[in-house]
């Protein structure tokens, strides 16, 4: 019985050490868009993932799923990779993150990067994620477009009012001239009759 107790105690200690031992991970990488996180539709996006020297593999994740893998050569001289995403569209817009591996150890997941695809300058941004910044950008885009439309409508209205006022003044002058002419003609006839 004492040997069984000792064996169970030893097994319990080993398990508790394995459970309490911190899992070793590498520092999280930094992810960023090479030029901008707002990519025009049909254009290429480039995401940079910076990890540690000696990383043998980098993985790019999109919305939590594996999207692409890069293996730098030689790994000991490179501490990051670039992922190219060709032909951006609304299906490729969203949240990206990356991780890297040195030996058998994996890094923590990077912070999320929200990639947005934009259309023509007159169209609104096609936002597919729910971040506050993107909501603000969409609101600003709608507001700017509405202000532009209202400004153009106001200018057209002012031009129409100016044309109407000019026409009214022109008709008024014509009536006044006709009235003066008839008054003058009437006086002239009256003067010729009295002579």
From TrEMBL:
Keywords assigned by UniProt, alphabetized: Cell membrane, Disulfide bond, Glycoprotein, Immunoglobulin domain, Membrane, Receptor, Repeat, Signal, Transmembrane, Transmembrane helix
Mode of membrane association: Single-pass type I membrane protein
Signal peptide: 1-16
Localisation per UniProt entry: Cell membrane
Keyword Metal-binding listed: no
Ranges annotated as spanning the membrane: 147-165
GO biological process entries: immune response-regulating signaling pathway
CDD domains: IgC2_D1_LILR_KIR_like (cd05751)
Database matches in InterPro entries: Ig-like_dom_sf, Ig-like_fold, Ig-like_Receptors_ImmuneReg
Top-level lineage group: Eukaryota
Entry GO CC: plasma membrane
Protein family according to the UniProt entry: Belongs to the natural cytotoxicity receptor (NCR) family.
Official protein name in the record: Natural cytotoxicity triggering receptor 1
